[in-house]
Specification:
By secondary structure, the protein is α+β, with helices and mostly antiparallel strands. The chain contains three helices and twelve strands; from the N terminus they run ααββββββββββββα. Helix 1 crosses helix 2. The longest helix is centred in the N-terminal third of the chain and has 74 residues.
Length: 343
């Protein structure tokens, strides 16, 4: 047991001696390399033997210095990358804002161009700020109301065509019923001069994106791709506003009438900006003369027909007067109530 311990102590002493010698040698090399001390001739022999250690130490020190520089460079690169990432994010956000501003500018320019060309209308521009989520209802909310001159039953358009009409005007916002709504009803005409067939465009609950033109006589001159415009009948929609074109024609049950599927000129899925027609200086059209027959299946004379047409004009004028009066009353009531707006 004592022999083993003795051998272990000798081994530890040898290791300590070797470490001490190596430390001494390395320190000597470091001092010589750093201070350029002139070594006497007697020590040159020793330096010859120590030169490999000196080279090794220099290589090792250079490696450490180079590694330290590489670590610092990597840290700088990482910092620069973070800065560049932040700049890229900022530039992307600015690009998105610029694209959105450009898109809005283009829409408003198109709407302004339509407003300038349609000199028969006084219009106020508006933006859509809400949509009803009920699947069978196509109603949107705009950011204009009574304080902007908007009132119930005013037509709403874009530069592409008819959108709908105001169904509920508040002080600062209003609800617009789109022509896609099944409850909507628009008097229309086929624009083709040799046709001029009248009908009604209404929303289709079974096809929410495509209304239909109904009440078309089976033998009427209506073709696919015929353009449809408002007829002006009813006092809500001025005459001549584009609605869309006939995409398909189908016969109704019973065989006496047919209807056409309408492709609207307005893309309602992308609808953002609209214009409300505040005033129309164009006189409303005369109603289509009805074919009135007596019991003997003969047409009533011209005097009776003229009388009925005159009566129809008087009724239209009364309707316009009532609408105007209702608008004034709405505005007065809203001002008195202190500011409720349409939801």
């Amino acid at each position: 047991m004592s022999r083993s311990r003795k051998e272990k102590n000798q081994s530890q002493n040898k290791t300590a001696a070797i470490i001490f010698i190596l430390a001494f040698v390395l320190c000597s090399i470091f001092i010589v390399a750093k201070t350029n001390v002139q070594v006497p001739a007697a020590g040159k022999t020793m330096m010859f033997f120590l030169s490999p250690f000196q080279k090794t130490f220099s290589w090792f020190g250079g490696g450490i210095s180079e590694l330290s520089g590489s670590v610092e460079e990597m840290q700088n690169l990482q910092s620069e990358n973070e800065t560049l990432r932040e700049e890229v994010k900022k530039l992307r956000a600015e690009n998105l804002n610029a694209s959105e501003a450009l898109s809005e500018n283009q829409r408003l320019r198109a709407l302004l161009g339509y407003k300038q060309n349609a000199t028969q209308f006084d219009m106020v521009a508006a933006s859509i700020v809400g949509r009803e989520s009920v699947t069978w209802s196509s109603v949107v909310t705009i950011n204009r109301g009574l304080l902007d001159g908007v009132a119930d039953n005013m037509a709403v358009v874009t530069e592409l065509g008819l959108v709908g009409h105001i169904v509920e005007a508040g002080l600062n916002t209003s609800k617009v019923q789109l022509i896609l709504d099944p409850r909507s009803s628009v008097g229309t005409l086929i624009q083709r001069p040799e046709s001029r067939v009248a009908g009604i465009v209404e929303g289709d609950i079974n096809n929410p994106n495509a209304p239909k033109m109904v009440n078309i006589p089976k033998d009427a001159d209506v073709k696919e791709d015929d353009m449809i415009v408002t007829s002006g009948f009813g006092g809500v929609y001025p005459k001549g506003i584009v609605v869309g074109k006939i995409k398909e024609i189908h016969n109704d049950e019973g065989g006496l009438l047919k209807h056409g599927i309408v492709a609207t000129t307005v893309n309602f899925e992308k609808l953002e900006d609209v214009a409300v027609i505040i005033e129309s200086r164009e006189a409303p059209p005369d109603p289509l003369p009805p074919v009135i027959q007596s019991e003997a299946n003969t047409e009533i004379d011209a005097a009776e027909l003229a009388k009925q047409m005159e009566l129809s004009k008087q009724v239209q004028q009364e309707v316009r007067d009532r609408v105007k009066q209702a608008q004034i009353q709405q505005l007065e009531q809203a001002k008195q109530s202190g500011g409720g707006t349409a939801n």
